[in-house]
Amino acid sequence: MAEDRVYSVTELNRVAREFLEEGLGPLWVKGEVSNLVSAPSGHLYFTLKDAESEVSAVRFKGRASLLPSVVLKDGLSVVAYGHLTVYEPRGRYQFVVSLLQGAGLGTAQLEFERLKEKLKGEGLFDAGRKRSLPPFPQRIGVVTSPSGAALRDILSVLERRWPLVEVYLFPSAVQGETAPLEIVEAIRSAATFNDKYAPIDVLIVGRGGGSLEDLAAFNDERVARAISACPIPIVSAVGHEIDFTIADFVADVRAPTPSAAAELAVPDSGEVLSLLRTLHRRLAHAIRSAFDRRRRLLETGLRGYIFRIPLRKAATASQGLDLRLDELHRSIVRALEARDRELLRLEDRLPLVDPRLPLRRGYCLTFTPGDPSPLRDPGRVSRGETIETRFLIGKILSRVEEVSRT
After folding, report:
1. 224, 184 Cβ separation under 8 angstroms
2. In degrees to the nearest 10, what's the CA dihedral of 190, 195, 200, 204?
3. Measured between alpha carbons, how far apart are the two ends of the chain, in Å?
4. Is the pLDDT of residue 238 over 70?
5. H/E element holding 15?
6. Neighbours of 103 (CB within 10 A)
7. Are 235 and 248 in contact (CB under 8 A)?
8. Nearest CA to 23 among 109, 67, 66, 86?
9. Is the pLDDT confidence value at 69 over 60?
10. Distances (CA, A) of 168 to 125, 201, 217, 229
11. Cα(174)–Cα(46) distance, rounded to whole angstroms?
């Protein structure tokens, strides 16, 4: 009986494929693109999904000529035409797309654009607030999953390029419902470490590649604001080279992959060493050149007149010294003679101002008691007052009997 037949796996997959292709025939499917992967062959593999279900889909390179110019990307809502089949080697149920057209942005993409415009309006994307990375960092912080490939890639590049740097891991989930809050907390922990323990020069925040759903944590508003508020320059390292995440826009520097972030964060020690060697050579050359110039100047001076005939130069200098000493002696003599003449002139004038000269001629001087100035006006004394009259030899004290101005 037919119902007793035993199918091999290959036969089962073939029957299922024929049943789906013949039973349903070509049809239209509307959904949101997710998990888009471009194979080296040129085929595009992705998932079509709605709020409750999803189906694997493929667009073969050979059908490209039948498709309109729609650029597929995660989050794009499309209407696809094709047929349902089974990929027999793996028994995989998939939708083969022959034709598709955009049906507007999907929910995730719409939320992305809404948040992007909101944060842009607040100035979180402004180039003026972007900080440059230090040229020679000493400490680098990394916010990522401790078990992910992103951390291994970062450490490998840092070890190769700049082994002097210290790396501090602030672990966090990078996908799933708890990822946004864990990333926020890890960024805050890095800021606290920077303030209380040791300064962190650069903070790398990111993960490896994935679908739009896998990267959802880096499109979260809470993560964007934590990046904006962090005092440490941040490199966003979300491994999604084609599209940007919100974290990319807010961060100070965007790197397409974690490895590229590590490349941007540190210099190449080999290049730095080569530069130092070049500078050392230039400095040594400059020192040698300066030394050679001064040596030539010294040699030229040593060959000069003063060194070729030193005794003649010394004799000339000695003769000049004699002349200057003689001139100095004459100047001193002239000055002393002028002083002597001035002294004689003053001695001749001194007797003329001698207050005793009038007394020698028979005159006398009258003083009132307590007044050192001679009395010139009789009105300064009164009757009965004592006055003193000085002569060349001696003095007379007398009492005023009468005062008259005539």
Report:
1. no
2. 30
3. 185
4. yes
5. helix 9-24
6. 14
7. no
8. 86
9. no
10. 27, 11, 22, 20
11. 22
Look at residues 80, 74, 66 and name the one whose alpha carbon lies nearest to residue 29. Answer: 80
404's CB contacts (< 8 A; 6+ apart) are 378
Percent of the chain at pLDDT > 90 equals 37
Contacts of 366 (CB under 8 A, 6+ apart): 374, 375, 387, 388, 389, 390
149 contacts 208 by C-beta, under 8 angstroms: yes
The 10 Å Cβ neighbour count of residue 344 is: 9
| 246, two tokens | 């919100």
Nearest of 240, 201, 207, 247 to residue 224 by alpha carbon? 247
CB atoms within 10 A of CB 376: 9
- Mean per-residue pLDDT for 200-225? 90
Identify which of 149, 163, 132 has the alpha carbon closest to the alpha carbon of residue 257.
149
Give the three-class secondary structure for 309.
Answer: coil
Gyration radius of the chain's alpha carbons: 55
Q: Which of 172, 235, 159 is nearest to 200 (CA)?
A: 235
pLDDT, residue 196, reads 95
CA 196 to chain CA centroid, nearest Å: 21
Helix, strand, coil distribution of the chain in percent, nearest 5: 45, 20, 30
Evaluate if residue 234 carries a pLDDT over 50.
yes
Q: What is the rounded distance in angstroms from the CA atom of residue 80 to the CA atom of residue 96?
A: 9
Query: Which pLDDT tens digit goes with each residue over 88-104?
Result: 888 889 999 888 777 76
What pLDDT is recorded for position 107? 66
Virtual torsion, Cα 232, 233, 236, 237, nearest 10 deg: -90
Residue listed under structure tokens 């035993």:
6
Q: How many helices (H) and strands (E) does the chain have?
A: 11, 13
Q: Average the pLDDT over 295-321 and give the result.
A: 72
**What is the overall mean pLDDT for the chain?**
86
pLDDT of 82 over the 60 cut: yes
Tell me how crowded residue 113 is: count the other CB atoms within 10 A of its CB. 12
* Prediction pTM value: 0.55
Domains of the chain: 2-105 (2.40.50.140), 111-267 (3.40.50.2300), 357-399 (no CATH)
The CA–CA distances, whole Å, from 46 to 60, 68, 76 equal: 11, 18, 11
CA distances from 267 to 133, 134, 139, 361, 380 (A): 11, 10, 13, 112, 106
